[in-house]
Design the sequence.
């Protein structure tokens, strides 16, 4: 047997199990993610995130959803990666450069009493071209009529390194849905053939030009209390449809994120996201010796 050290962290309730994998790493990270994410028989979380060596940044983020599928990016997760990397000595500077499957992101840690407690992430520019999101349509997908089940929904699609389908709602009915009903709704979008690699879906109630309320269904993990890339995509979609300005707070079930789409009218406007990065606890878990391999 071997001991696997991990850290449980969350950003606005979007929780993951984090492993510093600079010397050793899981032999099958996808399988381990399913095991660790189980909230009754494992540690519990929305997935597994590894902190790996990088030749082009301070650390590389390798992410797995709760079902074991790979994900390109996680806005809440990357803030926690930067904090853990800094505190573990993997990254020795602030801001922290994090390599992801959708490029290198810069994370500015916000300190309190000498420790990082929150972070601002430059998420880069949104991807708005349909085929690049990817979605099965050319050009920008704004207020697009999509048949979902027996109804037609007006959607706006955005990628923040991972695909998002934003649905604006007129009242708070979707926020009152029981979990099982919301799950049925979320899966209809996640598996819709319009999105060839699946999609994360955000249901957004605009409160004002500076405030949005959001409930989210994440591809591969189900409903989560927050989604950082989804909050970014929601503000971009709200700007594109005239529902919000380029700087807005997004109220999620797990907390608040501050989003700013700089130079929103330009072609290269970057999206900045600010939110907490919280350590819940550290622990060790017994695994088979063959489940851990050396990093080469």
Sequence:
């Amino acid at each position: 047997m071997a001991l696997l050290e991990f850290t449980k962290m969350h950003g606005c309730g979007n929780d993951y199990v984090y492993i510093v994998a600079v010397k050793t790493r899981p032999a099958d990270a996808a399988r381990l993610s399913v095991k660790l994410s189980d909230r009754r028989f494992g540690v519990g979380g929305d997935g597994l995130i590894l902190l790996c060596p990088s030749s082009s940044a301070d650390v590389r983020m390798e992410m797995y959803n709760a079902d074991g599928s790979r994900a390109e990016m996680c806005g809440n997760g990357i803030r926690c990666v930067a904090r853990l990397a800094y505190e573990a000595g993997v990254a020795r500077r602030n801001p922290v450069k994090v390599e992801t499957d959708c490029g290198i992101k810069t994370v500015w840690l916000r300190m309190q009493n000498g420790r990082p407690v929150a972070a601002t992430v430059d998420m880069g520019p949104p991807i708005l071209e349909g085929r690049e999101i990817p979605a099965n349509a050319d050009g920008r997908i704004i207020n697009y009529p999509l048949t979902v089940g027996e109804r037609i929904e007006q959607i706006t699609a955005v990628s923040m390194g991972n695909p998002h389908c934003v649905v604006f709602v007129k009242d708070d009915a979707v926020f009152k849905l029981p979990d099982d009903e919301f799950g049925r709704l979320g899966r209809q979008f996640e598996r819709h053939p319009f999105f060839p690699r699946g999609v994360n879906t955000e249901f957004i109630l605009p409160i004002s030009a500076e405030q949005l309320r959001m409930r989210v269904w994440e591809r591969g993990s189900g409903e989560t209390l927050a989604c950082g890339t989804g909050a970014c995509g929601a503000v971009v979609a709200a700007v594109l449809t005239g529902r919000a300005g380029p700087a807005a707070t997004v109220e999620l079930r797990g907390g608040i994120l501050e989003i700013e789409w700089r130079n929103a009218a330009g072609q290269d406007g970057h999206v900045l996201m600010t939110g907490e990065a919280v350590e819940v606890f550290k622990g060790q878990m017994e695994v088979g010796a063959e489940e851990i391999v050396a990093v080469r």
Remarks:
- The longest helix spans residues 75-87.
- The helical segments are 29-37, 75-87, 179-190, 228-240.
